[in-house]
Amino acid sequence: MSAATSPRVLGHENYLNVSYGVKSWLLTTDHKRIGLLYLASITLYFFLGGAFAVLIRLHLLTPEGALVQAETYNKFFTMHGIIMVFFFLIPSIPAVLGNFLIPLMIGARDLAFPRLNLASWYIFNLGALFTLYAVASGGVDTGWTFYTPYSSLYSNSHVVAAALGIFIAGFSSILTGLNFIVTIHTMRAPGMTWFRLPIFVWAHYATSIIFVLGTPVLAITLGLVALERVFHIGIFNPALGGDPLLFQHLFWFYSHPAVYIMVLPAMGVTTELIATFSRKSLFGYHFVAAASLGIAVIGFLVWGHHMFVAGQSIYAAMVFSILSYLVAIPSAVKVFNWTATLYKGSVSYQTPMLYGMGFIGLFVIGGLTGLFLAALGVDVHVHDTYFVVAHFHYIMVGGAVMGYLGGLHYWWPKISGRLYPEGWAKLAALILFVGFNLTFFPQFILGYLGMPRRYHAYPAEFQVLNVMSSAGASILGVGYLLPMVYLIWSMRYGPIAGPNPWPATGLEWQTPSPPPPENFARTPVVTWEAYDFASRKDLRLAGAGLERLPAEPQD
Amino acid sequence: MQGGLPLFPERASSIAGRVDALFFFLLGVALFFSLIITVMIVYFAVKYRRRAPDQIGALITGSTNLETAWMVIPLILAMVMFGWGASLFVSIKTPPRDALEVYVVGKQWMWKLQHPEGQKEINELHVPVGREIKLTLTSEDVIHDFFVPAFRIKTDVLPGRYSTLWFKATRPGQYHLFCAQYCGTNHAIMGGWVTVMEPAEFQTWLSGGPAEGSLASAGEKLFHALACATCHRSDSQGRGPKLDGLYGSMVRLGNGQSVLADEGYIRQSILNPKAKIVAGYQSLMPTFQGLVTEEQVLQLIAYIKSLSLPRPSPGAAPPAPGRTPSQGQATKRP
């Protein structure tokens, strides 16, 4: 099938062609359209945050700083962090793919609260407006972590506007989380038991718990910063009788679980990709599902590992260290199960699978370097150095963004009704993988050498590694631009995908692509387990070439 | 481009080798697992590649034995890492009792350091090789972080409290001193050098500085200038508690609790005297917040510490705090 033979318009009535005009989008309560609204918003914010990353890497080409003054550089990394964390990474998979897919995956017509869902998009963009105002009117220079008393008293930048933006956007996270939890509990189709849910849904359930329990703490914390800054109420500044460490406890109580907000959904996506493109039941389904919840729960108890050198007691440090090691176990369980799923599979190397395998590789490096940071004696040396910067970019960019792009490619035929160009997509995945590693691996070495983060200038001996990192970033940038171009192109010119192009087992593939406004013509009845290719005659697989292998002994 | 491609930092403190040892253990474990996962993924992906378009995988759904194995083995390894890291941390965080003391005040954007002998430095620290050095650090404004990569040590330096850090330099040389906690515009240039010298050279350096008198004597002058001596009399008849022998002792408070009289306690008692009232005394003392700088507080503390040291003879100048008599001799050794 080539683009030339594809019709320009898809025939059946679907959520894209059921109505036209700006109003039909801005007032929609269809979770699929809201997912696309989020897609448009966060793509914009991603490229804005990415522009700041480009400026950072250009500036760091020379030891004395090639581009701007110190103050401006500090605003670059602050805006990069704030935009990427709060306005891209946190909403990325849940608000776009989660919104679009959770009702489809569980056989529901929509989310439980469609209008709240639309409200959450408006709240999100209202928050973004405040933060963008802070950018446009001169920027913020506190770092995305807003550490007090710098943020609450000493910074001469637009802290309150930026914090208010994050405060407001937080409510959209809470609403999305609530919506997902209620939907997953109450709207599953007949036969869709908890243990038949795709892992993607489990991951979003775990993520939603963090949304609902964690986000309010961040909102309160930033509110307190604003109170201290505007009214000089002593909360965090010792000169006013406050405690600067209190801020760090409150901030990381949300912001560490927030890392799991970013990576849990990406793990959910990866699970779908690995199972679909191995055409095989997920190895250890119950363990992978439970690991999501385990990560969400233990993830709430490890915030103090951001404060090992901040002044907490030795005993507190030990408790947070041991808990940080415990949270590594469910992550390891997931990695081993994904790997075991490939065993005796029918593995194809289509683009989403490349992202899936890329995710595992980068997540393994990001996760294992987390073990270095959890080791108290080693953390003293690498804390607040580029080692940490490299580690969390491996998790948040190598992990979460790879998962997001993998998911976007995998469900693109469902979202748009059309296939993306496979050759270009494979090329982009390869460019991203190479560019990512070249950008961030040198930063591990820089960190152990002792280069602190948030430096606008650095000793000359660190230059070669910084130049390598900047070179990698330029490759990475190309890798991010490519999918945007060909995905948009494919919306009009891509070959028609059909309802289930891979094919895959989930309910979302049992309805036309793009799905009709009501998702399913009739409420589906689920009689199969998740990822059960072997008993799905409707997929018309397992014909030629299949030898039924005897099942492994079960316990 | 200057500097070439460095891959590993200099190692110049007694603790650095131990940090690197744990680092290499972690690196080994990380490489081992990365390699296993990568090899398995590549091997499975190639060996079980799809050979026919409609082929599906084998019906395998899991194995409790395997799940147990890959939970228990990583858990054991993780606990080894935890224990090793924690014991190393305790060593890093516990300063030896007989260390030389240096007082550090961070402010946007410089480090101000004072030696007990009175030498002051900015963004530089001179220390003798082979001696334990204990730093007592505080900040005048925001949070900073004192970081010497070659020593593998760092600590955040907070306003309103004291942090401590210790090291024993093992090789003479010049080593980077960085601020590692983002502190505003010139965060990146808030730093300088730690210069490690042979002991004799260090003695020459110490005696070559401006003769301002020791830190304790500066504190003593301040003690009288601020009229502290009016109440804190050495004959126990004053309205405030006697300060001789205070440092390092346990103080009974009016509310029945006891606290250790360390640097932090003395600092708090100067700046926020109402916080902890000594049993048997009235809350009469006014705050000295805003009247004394952080450096002056450190001078006062140095003086009060000197009152707890055994005095060789009445009227003689108090020995430098932090140096027991035996060390005082040791540093004089040629």
How would you describe this protein?
In chain A, 62% of the residues are buried. Chain A has one domain: Cytochrome c oxidase-like, subunit I domain (Cytochrome C Oxidase, Chain A). The longest helix of chain A is centred in the first third of the chain and has 37 residues, at 70-106. In chain A, helix 11 runs parallel beside helix 14 and helix 14 runs antiparallel to helix 15 (463-493). Chain A has 15 helices and no strands. Chain A has 555 residues and is an all-alpha fold. Residues 544-555 of chain A have low confidence and may be disordered. Chain B contains seven helices and twelve strands. Residues 313-334 of chain B have low confidence and may be disordered. Helix content of chain B is 34%, strand content 19%. With 334 residues, chain B is α+β, with helices and mostly antiparallel strands. Classes of the chains: A mainly alpha (555), B alpha+beta (334). At the A-B interface, helix 3, helix 8, helix 9, helix 10 and helix 11 of A face helix 1, helix 2, strand 7 and strand 9 of B.
In brief:
The complex is a heterodimer of chains A (555) and B (334). Chain A contains 15 helices and no strands.
Please specify the SSE layout and strand pairing.
The complex is a heterodimer of chains A (555) and B (334).
Chain A: H1 22-26, H2 31-59, H3 70-106, H4 114-136, H5 150-154, H6 159-186, H7 199-231, H8 244-278, H9 285-298, H10 314-342, H11 351-374, H12 376-382, H13 386-416, H14 422-449, H15 463-493
Helix pairs in contact in A: 2-3, 2-4, 2-15, 3-6, 3-7, 3-8, 3-13, 4-6, 6-7, 7-8, 7-9, 8-10, 8-11, 8-13, 9-10, 10-11, 11-13, 11-14, 13-14, 14-15
Chain B: H1 16-47, H2 64-93, E1 100-107, E2 110-114, E3 120-122, E4 124-128, E5 132-139, E6 144-148, E7 153-157, E8 163-168, E9 173-179, E10 192-197, H3 199-208, H4 215-225, E11 250-252, E12 258-260, H5 263-271, H6 294-306, H7 325-332
Parallel strand pairs in B: 1-5, 4-10
Antiparallel strand pairs in B: 1-2, 2-3, 5-8, 6-7, 6-9, 9-10, 11-12
Helix pairs in contact in B: 1-2, 4-6
